[in-house]
Automatic annotation (TrEMBL):
Catalyzed reaction equations: Catalyzes the rearrangement of -S-S- bonds in proteins
One GO BP: response to endoplasmic reticulum stress
Gene3D superfamilies: Glutaredoxin
Localization annotation: Endoplasmic reticulum lumen
Region of interest (Disordered), residue spans: 242-276, 391-429
Organism: Dactylellina haptotyla (strain CBS 200.50)
Keyword tags: Disulfide bond, Isomerase, Redox-active center, Signal
Higher taxonomy: Eukaryota, Fungi, Dikarya, Ascomycota, Pezizomycotina
Basic and acidic residues bias (residue ranges): 245-256, 403-429
Signal peptide segment: 1-22
Protein name (Swiss-Prot/TrEMBL): protein disulfide-isomerase
Keyword check for Chloroplast: no
Amino acid sequence: MVHNPLVVAALSAGLLAPLAAGMYSSNSPVLQLTGKNFNEKIIKSNHASIVEFYAPWCGHCKNLKPAYEKAAENLKGLAQVAAIDCDEDANKKTCGEYGIQGFPTLKTFKPGKNGKPVIMDYQGPRTAKGVVDAVLDLIPNHVERVNSKTVESFLQKKNETVKAILFTTKGVATPMYKSLAIDFFGSISFAQVRDKETEALAIFGVEKLPTLIVLPGGTAEGVVYDGPMKKDAMTKFLSQYAKPSDGKPAKEEKETPTSSSTSAPPPKPTFDSTIPDVPSMGAFAESCGKKICVLVITPPVAPSLAPFEKTNFYVNHIKLGFPFFQLPYATLSPQFKEALELTDTENVQMRALSAKKGWWVPYKGDANSHEDMENWMDALKLGDLHKKKLPELGSDVVTPPEPPKEEAPKEEAPKEEEPEKEAPKHEEL
């Protein structure tokens, strides 16, 4: 092999070092982050994101790169797959703020209320499919579900604004349609009507599915989209009626206090939980051996579901179609926590399981959002969620309590708990 003496000399002198500093090239589908643009690109974004905190010299980071770039390619236009080089001095402060101690560390960012995202450690498989499946579940849903009874109220609400209605066979919005609703958030109201809503279909004369209709607003007639059901083409079509927004949700307006507001606020309603506990996997299997069941895991700070009023009211008063069981996080066996990726110790967590078919599905919505839970239930019934393999958990789900000791217990320092096919193509409507 013939070596160019100029290149060899440059390498020896370290002149080409900046070219090797970053692990991802400028044409990589992975979004490049820095300490300066992290908040703007990730924290303030209304798109779901996954961020890799890495160092270029890290062998595991290099091994992850092909799968991570493949995931980014498949999630293009749907969510953000990003990376930040923690070896760069300018980025070390940002990496420190997120407690990065090893590489690569992956964290997911799901847009939340008031501009504060829900940040979680990614504990799934480090494959393209694993990353894609996890991030798809985090995409916010700004698509309103409309049926034959509610279509009129949807049309009358903010009549001057542009509306887009998708008539489809699907019961839940696809990632692509949800991403369109994010791109045009605040400028176009998105809705979805299922094929079984025959009266709503008749109002618009819809005969084939899927069909997308845009209502420009006011008295203007609706326009039927006749192009391919692809993100770029649909974006171009919708842009004729409204400009894509920055995807930022409007800030919630605070109520202005009135003269009568000096009186004490009315007491909040409370709801006693009627969700039974799970004493063992045997008891769970007996009730859920041939059907899907949902486990509600309560955090150590509130081992009973009763304080979580909205969640408790929803699961106790809405017809869900699934048996529910309640388990305190602190009583679960370490094996069970690891198998079902139960790493959140501050909030309610939910997991749907099928003991017969050997899979489980995590709930990644807001525990206080009825809409998130309802969408999750619909997707669960339709089989539209990404299922994970249910491993052998043994006979115990709950760790039996230790017998009382006669001697006075000695104080011990608390131990820290360790948190612990191919990628799908763009999903069409």
